[in-house]
């Protein structure tokens, strides 16, 4: 959708990747149209071979939206690259399909990136559906330590710890605050920066492409930043609700291992794999020992899911479980949202 008409100049190109999330995409586009008044924008939706009726619904309600149909699931990063190739704005905004922007959020985010001459990737405050803060909106780049210690309990006990890279969330400043990385659910970047680093890496099919992109932008000499007065609701898993848990877990491990190899070297990646093997063995042992109490407290489904998760991680760590992406592109295990 072009706010100023199909032939006019636009300042901002909004790219949304859809995979079986037509209703979410429509809600997202509605929120953009209703809440963005000061920025000239276009909206580009890339469908990752879901063929879920999104094109027809958009054409009926928002005929100005540019819809791109991919014949196969390209993955999140490659699909965004496709959207950028057809875009015109000097600034790019990548939104997950299961997001809804609060009124004025895009205008303020655009103003925020304009204030930084060396701006890299700029992100905003992400909220859960119930309005609570999503702390993953800003992150530290992965290390072996912060990946192994990444647990909800530790995050709650020490939310400002340097390990998580989330201190910017507690800043009261409305000015952009420098961070290592922001969530791919909402990322704004200048086109020239995007092109300079080569866009999203096709090496990442699902998960990790946002952190890899932020890392490459930072290494190129630009500053990634968080703008706290811009709020976007991220429902969290519009298309990922269909993601099979084992596949999702394995893909996350694959992505982190690849990121660590790129950022810290082969030793860090190998150390991460070994640490996960040890952790999985410990978790499975605890699950076996505490199974009677677990089954009484949470039920068989919860216990079984936990066992499958850690067994999948153990098999991945031992090199026994590697996803076959070409085959999985025909299944409901991959998509456009995180």
Label this structure with key terms.
338 residues; alpha/beta; five-stranded mixed beta sheet; four-stranded mixed beta sheet
Provide a concise account of the structure shown.
The chain is α/β, with parallel strands linked by helices. The protein has 13 helices and 11 strands.
Strand-helix topology:
Layout: E1 12-18, H1 22-35, E2 41-48, H2 54-61, E3 66-70, H3 76-85, E4 91-95, E5 99-101, H4 105-115, E6 119-127, E7 138-139, H5 144-148, H6 152-157, E8 177-178, E9 181-182, E10 186-190, H7 191-197, H8 209-219, E11 223-234, H9 245-264, H10 266-289, H11 291-298, H12 300-317, H13 325-328
Parallel strand pairs: 1-2, 1-4, 2-3, 6-11
Antiparallel strand pairs: 4-10, 5-11, 7-9, 8-11
Structural features, described:
The chain has helices at residues 22-35, 54-61, 76-85, 105-115, 144-148, 152-157, 191-197, 209-219, 245-264, 266-289, 291-298, 300-317, 325-328, and strands spanning 12-18, 41-48, 66-70, 91-95, 99-101, 119-127, 138-139, 177-178, 181-182, 186-190, 223-234. The protein is an alpha/beta fold and 338 residues long. The strands form 3 sheets. It has a 5-stranded mixed sheet with strand order 3-2-1-4-10, sandwiched between helices. Strands 5, 6, 8 and 11 form a 4-stranded mixed sheet that branches. Strand 2, helix 2 and strand 3 form a beta-alpha-beta unit. Helix 1 packs parallel to helix 2 (54-61), helix 9 (245-264) packs antiparallel against helix 10 and helix 10 (266-289) runs antiparallel to helix 12. The longest helix has 24 residues, at 266-289. It is globular, with a radius of gyration of 20 Å. The two termini are 24 Å apart. The model is unreliable at 238-243 and 326-335 (pLDDT under 50).
């Amino acid at each position: 959708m072009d706010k100023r008409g199909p032939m006019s100049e636009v300042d901002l190109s909004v790219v949304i990747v859809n995979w079986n999330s037509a209703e979410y995409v429509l809600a997202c586009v509605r929120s953009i149209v209703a809440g963005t008044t000061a920025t000239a924008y276009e909206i580009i939706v890339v469908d990752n071979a879901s063929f879920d009726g999104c094109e027809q619904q958009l054409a009926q309600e928002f005929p100005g939206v540019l819809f791109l149909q991919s014949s196969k699931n390209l993955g999140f990063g490659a699909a965004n690259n496709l959207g950028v190739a057809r875009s015109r704005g000097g600034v790019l905004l990548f939104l997950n399909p299961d997001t809804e922007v609060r009124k004025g959020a895009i205008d303020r985010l655009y103003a925020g990136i304009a204030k930084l001459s060396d701006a890299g990737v700029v992100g905003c405050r992400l909220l859960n559906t119930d309005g609570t803060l999503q702390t993953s909106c800003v992150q530290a780049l992965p290390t072996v330590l912060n990946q192994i210690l990444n647990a909800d309990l530790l995050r709650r006990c020490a939310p400002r710890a340097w390990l998580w890279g989330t201190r910017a969330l507690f800043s009261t400043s409305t000015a952009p605050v420098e961070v290592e990385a922001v969530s791919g659910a909402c990322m704004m970047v200048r086109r020239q920066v995007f092109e300079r680093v080569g866009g999203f890496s096709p090496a990442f099919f699902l998960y990790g492409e946002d952190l890899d992109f932020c890392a490459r932008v930072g290494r190129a000499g630009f500053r990634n930043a968080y703008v706290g007065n811009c709020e976007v609701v991220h429902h969290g898993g519009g298309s990922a609700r269909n993601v099979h848990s084992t596949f999702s877990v394995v893909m996350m491990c694959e992505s982190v291992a690849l990121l660590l190899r790129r950022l810290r070297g082969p030793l860090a990646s190998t150390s991460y794999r070994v640490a996960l093997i040890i952790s999985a063995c410990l978790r499975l042992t605890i699950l076996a020992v505490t199974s009677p109490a677990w089954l009484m407290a949470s039920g068989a489904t919860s216990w079984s899911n936990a066992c499958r998760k850690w067994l999948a991680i153990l098999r991945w760590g031992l090199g026994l479980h590697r996803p076959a992406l070409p085959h999985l592109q025909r299944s409901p295990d991959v998509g456009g949202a995180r």
